[in-house]
Amino acid sequence: MKYHEVLKAAADHGAQGAGMTIVRLNGSVGKLFEDWLQKNFPDRYDKVLHQIRSFTVARLHDSQFGRRMTGEGNIADSIHQLFRSARKKYFKER
Question: Is the pTM of this model over 0.70?
Answer without folding.
Answer: no
